[in-house]
Amino acid sequence: MPRMNDTSRRRRFADAAREERPDLALLCLLVGMEADPGLDETGIDEAQIELDRLAGQLPFSPGGPEEWAAALARLLGERHDFRGGAAEYRRLESSLLHEVLRRRRGLPILLSVVWMEVARRAGAPVYGVGLPGRFVVGFGDPYGSHVLADPFDGGRPLSSEDAAMLVSGTTGTPLSLSMLTPAGPLDIVLRILNNIRAWASARPERTDVRLWAVELSLLLPAHPARLRYERARLLVERGDFLTGARELEDYAEVVAAVEPDAAETVRREARAARAMLN
Protein backbone atom coordinates (compact mmCIF):
# COMPACT_ATOMS: atom_id res chain seq x y z
CA MET A 1 0.00 0.00 0.00
CA PRO A 2 1.49 3.40 -0.96
CA ARG A 3 2.61 5.72 1.80
CA MET A 4 0.55 8.90 2.30
CA ASN A 5 2.25 12.14 1.35
CA ASP A 6 3.08 14.80 3.93
CA THR A 7 -0.08 16.83 3.34
CA SER A 8 -2.36 13.80 3.64
CA ARG A 9 -0.64 12.60 6.82
CA ARG A 10 -0.86 16.01 8.45
CA ARG A 11 -4.51 16.39 7.48
CA ARG A 12 -5.33 12.98 8.93
CA PHE A 13 -3.49 13.81 12.15
CA ALA A 14 -5.29 17.16 12.49
CA ASP A 15 -8.67 15.53 11.81
CA ALA A 16 -8.01 12.76 14.34
CA ALA A 17 -6.99 15.32 16.97
CA ARG A 18 -10.29 17.16 16.51
CA GLU A 19 -12.54 14.15 16.94
CA GLU A 20 -15.00 14.35 19.83
CA ARG A 21 -13.23 11.34 21.35
CA PRO A 22 -9.70 11.30 19.96
CA ASP A 23 -8.25 7.84 19.30
CA LEU A 24 -5.03 7.88 21.33
CA ALA A 25 -3.53 4.82 19.63
CA LEU A 26 -4.24 6.20 16.15
CA LEU A 27 -2.70 9.58 16.99
CA CYS A 28 0.43 7.88 18.35
CA LEU A 29 0.69 5.74 15.22
CA LEU A 30 0.33 8.81 13.00
CA VAL A 31 3.25 10.33 14.92
CA GLY A 32 5.13 7.15 14.07
CA MET A 33 4.34 7.66 10.39
CA GLU A 34 6.28 10.92 10.46
CA ALA A 35 9.35 9.20 11.87
CA ASP A 36 9.31 5.88 10.03
CA PRO A 37 9.11 5.83 6.21
CA GLY A 38 8.29 2.13 6.42
CA LEU A 39 5.10 2.59 8.41
CA ASP A 40 2.05 2.60 6.13
CA GLU A 41 -1.67 1.95 6.54
CA THR A 42 -1.05 -1.78 6.77
CA GLY A 43 1.41 -1.20 9.61
CA ILE A 44 -1.08 1.00 11.45
CA ASP A 45 -3.75 -1.70 11.11
CA GLU A 46 -1.31 -4.35 12.36
CA ALA A 47 -0.47 -2.28 15.44
CA GLN A 48 -4.16 -1.81 16.27
CA ILE A 49 -4.72 -5.54 15.78
CA GLU A 50 -1.84 -6.29 18.15
CA LEU A 51 -3.44 -4.12 20.83
CA ASP A 52 -6.72 -6.01 20.27
CA ARG A 53 -4.88 -9.34 20.49
CA LEU A 54 -3.24 -8.43 23.78
CA ALA A 55 -6.56 -7.24 25.20
CA GLY A 56 -8.10 -10.56 24.27
CA GLN A 57 -5.61 -12.31 26.56
CA LEU A 58 -6.87 -10.53 29.66
CA PRO A 59 -9.32 -12.32 31.94
CA PHE A 60 -12.92 -11.16 31.69
CA SER A 61 -13.72 -8.54 34.35
CA PRO A 62 -11.10 -9.67 36.90
CA GLY A 63 -12.48 -7.46 39.70
CA GLY A 64 -11.70 -4.04 41.16
CA PRO A 65 -8.84 -1.64 40.45
CA GLU A 66 -6.24 -3.79 42.22
CA GLU A 67 -7.21 -6.87 40.23
CA TRP A 68 -7.17 -4.98 36.93
CA ALA A 69 -3.72 -3.56 37.69
CA ALA A 70 -2.42 -7.01 38.66
CA ALA A 71 -3.91 -8.61 35.53
CA LEU A 72 -2.21 -6.04 33.27
CA ALA A 73 1.10 -6.46 35.10
CA ARG A 74 0.96 -10.25 34.67
CA LEU A 75 0.06 -10.03 30.99
CA LEU A 76 2.18 -7.13 29.78
CA GLY A 77 4.93 -6.85 32.37
CA GLU A 78 5.58 -10.54 33.00
CA ARG A 79 4.25 -12.61 30.10
CA HIS A 80 5.13 -10.19 27.29
CA ASP A 81 7.98 -8.38 29.09
CA PHE A 82 6.96 -4.80 28.31
CA ARG A 83 9.17 -2.51 30.39
CA GLY A 84 11.69 0.33 30.24
CA GLY A 85 15.32 1.02 30.96
CA ALA A 86 17.84 3.85 30.93
CA ALA A 87 18.87 3.15 27.34
CA GLU A 88 15.35 3.90 26.08
CA TYR A 89 15.85 7.61 26.65
CA ARG A 90 18.51 7.59 23.93
CA ARG A 91 16.30 6.02 21.24
CA LEU A 92 13.73 7.76 19.07
CA GLU A 93 12.00 4.38 18.69
CA SER A 94 11.11 4.53 22.37
CA SER A 95 8.62 7.30 21.54
CA LEU A 96 6.96 5.47 18.61
CA LEU A 97 4.03 3.21 19.46
CA HIS A 98 4.52 0.71 16.62
CA GLU A 99 8.17 0.26 17.64
CA VAL A 100 7.28 -0.12 21.32
CA LEU A 101 4.81 -2.86 20.39
CA ARG A 102 7.51 -4.59 18.34
CA ARG A 103 10.43 -4.19 20.77
CA ARG A 104 8.47 -4.40 24.06
CA ARG A 105 10.57 -1.46 25.24
CA GLY A 106 9.87 2.27 25.44
CA LEU A 107 9.61 5.44 27.47
CA PRO A 108 7.20 5.54 30.43
CA ILE A 109 4.53 7.42 28.50
CA LEU A 110 4.55 5.04 25.50
CA LEU A 111 4.47 1.98 27.73
CA SER A 112 1.57 3.64 29.57
CA VAL A 113 -0.21 4.10 26.22
CA VAL A 114 0.13 0.36 25.61
CA TRP A 115 -1.23 -0.40 29.11
CA MET A 116 -4.12 2.04 28.67
CA GLU A 117 -5.09 0.91 25.17
CA VAL A 118 -4.98 -2.79 26.05
CA ALA A 119 -6.89 -2.22 29.30
CA ARG A 120 -9.47 0.05 27.64
CA ARG A 121 -10.21 -2.55 24.99
CA ALA A 122 -10.83 -5.10 27.75
CA GLY A 123 -13.25 -2.78 29.58
CA ALA A 124 -10.98 -1.67 32.44
CA PRO A 125 -11.48 1.69 34.18
CA VAL A 126 -8.05 3.03 33.16
CA TYR A 127 -6.51 6.46 32.71
CA GLY A 128 -3.10 8.09 32.36
CA VAL A 129 -1.36 10.17 35.02
CA GLY A 130 1.37 12.58 33.97
CA LEU A 131 3.50 12.79 37.09
CA PRO A 132 6.50 15.10 36.72
CA GLY A 133 9.28 12.96 35.28
CA ARG A 134 7.29 9.72 35.07
CA PHE A 135 4.05 8.93 33.27
CA VAL A 136 2.05 6.15 34.96
CA VAL A 137 -1.42 4.62 34.72
CA GLY A 138 -4.34 4.55 37.11
CA PHE A 139 -7.13 2.02 37.51
CA GLY A 140 -10.47 2.80 39.12
CA ASP A 141 -11.94 6.16 40.07
CA PRO A 142 -9.27 8.87 39.89
CA TYR A 143 -11.20 10.87 42.49
CA GLY A 144 -12.06 7.89 44.67
CA SER A 145 -10.79 4.32 45.00
CA HIS A 146 -7.93 3.79 42.57
CA VAL A 147 -4.56 2.12 42.09
CA LEU A 148 -1.51 3.51 40.30
CA ALA A 149 0.90 1.31 38.36
CA ASP A 150 4.25 1.99 36.70
CA PRO A 151 4.50 0.31 33.26
CA PHE A 152 8.16 1.40 32.97
CA ASP A 153 8.81 -0.97 35.87
CA GLY A 154 6.72 -3.80 34.45
CA GLY A 155 3.48 -2.57 36.00
CA ARG A 156 4.69 -2.33 39.59
CA PRO A 157 1.90 -0.97 41.81
CA LEU A 158 2.64 2.44 43.29
CA SER A 159 1.58 3.44 46.77
CA SER A 160 1.07 7.11 47.61
CA GLU A 161 4.54 7.07 49.13
CA ASP A 162 6.03 5.55 45.95
CA ALA A 163 4.39 8.24 43.79
CA ALA A 164 5.62 10.96 46.15
CA MET A 165 9.17 9.59 45.92
CA LEU A 166 9.03 9.60 42.11
CA VAL A 167 7.94 13.24 42.11
CA SER A 168 10.37 14.44 44.76
CA GLY A 169 13.23 12.61 43.08
CA THR A 170 12.53 14.45 39.82
CA THR A 171 11.42 17.89 40.95
CA GLY A 172 12.38 18.12 44.62
CA THR A 173 8.79 19.11 45.39
CA PRO A 174 6.07 17.17 47.22
CA LEU A 175 3.31 15.27 45.45
CA SER A 176 0.13 17.31 45.07
CA LEU A 177 -3.39 16.15 44.22
CA SER A 178 -3.34 18.17 41.01
CA MET A 179 -0.52 15.94 39.74
CA LEU A 180 -2.88 12.95 39.88
CA THR A 181 -5.43 14.48 37.51
CA PRO A 182 -6.15 12.16 34.55
CA ALA A 183 -4.39 13.18 31.34
CA GLY A 184 -6.53 13.48 28.22
CA PRO A 185 -5.50 11.94 24.88
CA LEU A 186 -4.34 15.24 23.41
CA ASP A 187 -2.33 16.07 26.54
CA ILE A 188 -0.62 12.70 26.18
CA VAL A 189 0.16 13.23 22.49
CA LEU A 190 1.58 16.70 23.18
CA ARG A 191 3.79 15.26 25.94
CA ILE A 192 5.03 12.55 23.54
CA LEU A 193 5.85 15.20 20.95
CA ASN A 194 7.64 17.24 23.62
CA ASN A 195 9.77 14.17 24.38
CA ILE A 196 10.61 13.81 20.69
CA ARG A 197 11.53 17.50 20.48
CA ALA A 198 13.79 17.09 23.51
CA TRP A 199 15.44 14.02 21.94
CA ALA A 200 16.08 15.93 18.71
CA SER A 201 17.24 19.11 20.50
CA ALA A 202 20.10 17.11 21.99
CA ARG A 203 21.13 16.06 18.47
CA PRO A 204 21.81 19.13 16.29
CA GLU A 205 21.90 16.96 13.17
CA ARG A 206 18.24 15.96 13.69
CA THR A 207 16.51 19.30 13.11
CA ASP A 208 14.29 17.37 10.68
CA VAL A 209 12.79 15.39 13.57
CA ARG A 210 12.47 18.45 15.76
CA LEU A 211 10.68 20.32 12.96
CA TRP A 212 8.02 17.68 12.31
CA ALA A 213 7.45 17.23 16.05
CA VAL A 214 6.84 20.99 16.36
CA GLU A 215 4.58 21.01 13.31
CA LEU A 216 2.45 18.15 14.61
CA SER A 217 2.18 19.90 17.98
CA LEU A 218 0.90 23.00 16.20
CA LEU A 219 -1.88 20.90 14.64
CA LEU A 220 -3.30 20.03 18.06
CA PRO A 221 -6.33 22.15 19.07
CA ALA A 222 -4.45 23.45 22.14
CA HIS A 223 -0.72 24.05 22.13
CA PRO A 224 1.80 26.56 23.53
CA ALA A 225 1.95 29.66 21.33
CA ARG A 226 5.73 29.72 21.65
CA LEU A 227 5.91 26.67 19.38
CA ARG A 228 5.33 29.08 16.48
CA TYR A 229 8.54 30.85 17.46
CA GLU A 230 10.40 27.56 17.71
CA ARG A 231 9.24 26.54 14.23
CA ALA A 232 10.31 29.87 12.75
CA ARG A 233 13.79 29.60 14.27
CA LEU A 234 14.11 26.01 13.04
CA LEU A 235 13.26 27.10 9.51
CA VAL A 236 16.01 29.72 9.66
CA GLU A 237 18.44 27.16 11.08
CA ARG A 238 17.61 24.80 8.23
CA GLY A 239 18.24 27.51 5.61
CA ASP A 240 14.67 28.58 4.80
CA PHE A 241 15.49 32.17 5.69
CA LEU A 242 12.56 33.86 3.96
CA THR A 243 9.81 31.69 5.43
CA GLY A 244 11.48 31.71 8.84
CA ALA A 245 11.80 35.51 8.82
CA ARG A 246 8.16 35.91 7.82
CA GLU A 247 7.02 33.59 10.62
CA LEU A 248 9.23 35.40 13.14
CA GLU A 249 7.56 38.66 12.14
CA ASP A 250 4.11 37.10 12.49
CA TYR A 251 5.00 35.81 15.95
CA ALA A 252 6.31 39.25 16.97
CA GLU A 253 2.93 40.75 16.07
CA VAL A 254 1.18 38.20 18.28
CA VAL A 255 3.28 38.94 21.37
CA ALA A 256 3.78 42.68 20.84
CA ALA A 257 0.78 43.74 22.90
CA VAL A 258 1.87 41.87 26.04
CA GLU A 259 5.65 41.60 25.60
CA PRO A 260 6.86 44.56 23.50
CA ASP A 261 10.53 44.04 24.36
CA ALA A 262 10.36 40.36 23.42
CA ALA A 263 8.58 41.29 20.19
CA GLU A 264 11.37 43.69 19.24
CA THR A 265 13.96 40.99 19.90
CA VAL A 266 12.09 38.63 17.58
CA ARG A 267 11.89 41.35 14.90
CA ARG A 268 15.66 41.74 15.08
CA GLU A 269 15.99 38.00 14.55
CA ALA A 270 13.74 38.29 11.52
CA ARG A 271 15.88 41.08 10.07
CA ALA A 272 19.00 39.00 10.64
CA ALA A 273 17.39 36.05 8.85
CA ARG A 274 16.47 38.20 5.86
CA ALA A 275 20.02 39.54 5.75
CA MET A 276 21.27 36.00 5.20
CA LEU A 277 19.62 36.11 1.77
CA ASN A 278 21.99 38.86 0.57
Give a quick set of tags describing it:
single chain; 278 residues; alpha+beta; five-stranded antiparallel beta sheet; 12 helices; 8% strand; Protein SirB1 N-terminal domain-containing protein; SirB1_N
Describe it.
By secondary structure, the protein is of the alpha+beta class. The chain contains twelve helices and five strands. A five-stranded antiparallel β-sheet has the order 4-3-2-1-5. Strand 3 and strand 4 form a beta hairpin. The N and C termini lie far apart (45 Å). 40% of the residues are buried.
Low-confidence stretches: none
Shape: globular
Number of helices: 12
Strand order of the largest sheet: 4-3-2-1-5
**pLDDT averaged residue by residue:** 94
Q: Which percent bin holds the helix content?
A: 55-70%
Question: Largest sheet, if any?
Answer: 5 strands, antiparallel
Please provide the ordered H/E string of secondary-structure elements: HHHHHHEEEEHEHHHHH
Beta-strand residue fraction:
5-15%
Q: What's the end-to-end separation, in Å?
A: 45 Å
Q: Radius of gyration in whole Å, from Cα?
A: 21 Å
Structural class: alpha+beta
Total beta-strand segments: 5
InterPro entries: SirB1_N
Protein name: Protein SirB1 N-terminal domain-containing protein
Pfam families: TPR_9 (PF13371), Transglut_core2 (PF13369)
Domain Protein SirB1 N-terminal: 48-194
